[in-house]
Specification:
Blueprint: H1 4-7, H2 19-27, H3 34-48, H4 52-55, H5 59-71
Helix pairs in contact: 2-3
Length: about 90
């Protein structure tokens, strides 16, 4: 079994690789430690896959949008101003 320094030592220099490319490279390396590959997969996932909440609005957002659309010019007005002018 390798020690921690050997396990985390990159096999090649990063060169022009972005951090995401490096994570994907380690993730796809069959010779890398499986736990390291798992960590790289978890770290890269947010940058590769889009969240479902970013694609379509949820129920709350749909309800809010429908309420704003329905309100339009028929929305309830605010109450009267209760101001006193002491001129």
């Amino acid at each position: 079994m390798m020690n921690d320094a050997a396990a985390h030592k990159p096999r090649k220099s990063l060169g022009g690789m972005t951090p995401l490319e490096y994570m994907l490279d380690v993730m796809n390396d069959d010779e890398a430690d499986p736990s390291r590959r798992d960590r790289m997969a978890m770290a890269a996932a947010p940058f590769v896959h889009v969240r479902a909440s970013d694609i379509a609005p949820g129920k709350k957002e749909q309800k809010q949008a429908a309420a704003e659309k329905a309100a339009g010019k028929f929305s309830p007005r605010g109450g009267p101003r209760l101001a006193v002018n002491n001129d």
